[in-house]
């Protein structure tokens, strides 16, 4: 499943690479959502300016870390008409397993020759942490493919990371033209109208809440998220904010 928009000279395709089963109470107060939800695990592909970028890699071989997770990035890319061999840059918004698990295969970088961009905080964590994600980033670094990317610096024309702290070390959003990939700023459409519901997966819930409020209030144009199907827009009214599908 994929959905495409045009922004800043890019064809931006949101691709569902898999699904994660989640309890409704992990995303909202009891009774607000169904008991169990099948939540998409999305990646973003940007094609334009003579480039092909992949934003996040889904869980790859680490899908087994989440019981019931389903992942097929290769199949999803093919179904969306993306030639994985043309990917020249992979951008990782952060280093949770379902965002970076596919960056490594059998001890080697999964996308041969592709540069891998991460935030400074994520890179610093990966250099020291005893964690499979950190080890994967060190594998990329050993292959001389790692780019530690400052916030606001162009990764490609009109494409840059911006900080979104509180969810995980180095968690970032991606600006591309007038669109924004929000990564894990929110995990469900209901979180736009109910900012305090999205707490379960944040390492620093209070900081993440401040980030969520700031970014959602200040973001214009199309938005996409790692765990919400399709592109949307943040609608604002005197009653508050809401997710509006495009």
State the shape: globular
Beta-sheet strand percentage? 25-35%
Average the pLDDT over all residues and give the rounded result.
97
Counting helices, strands and paired strands, the structural category is: alpha/beta
How far the N terminus sits from the C terminus, by CA atoms, comes to 16 Å
The stretches of 5 or more residues where confidence is low (pLDDT under 50) are none
Using the coordinates shown, work out and report the CATH topology.
Answer: Metallo-beta-lactamase, Chain A
Order of helices and strands: EEEEEHEHEEEHHEEEEHHEEE
Offer a concise description of the structure.
By secondary structure, this protein is α/β, with parallel strands linked by helices. It is built from six helices and 16 strands. The strands form four sheets. Strands 1, 2, 3, 4, 5, 6, 9 and 10 form an eight-stranded mixed β-sheet that branches. Strands 11-12-13-14 form a four-stranded mixed β-sheet, with no helix packed on it. Strands 7-8 form a two-stranded antiparallel ribbon.
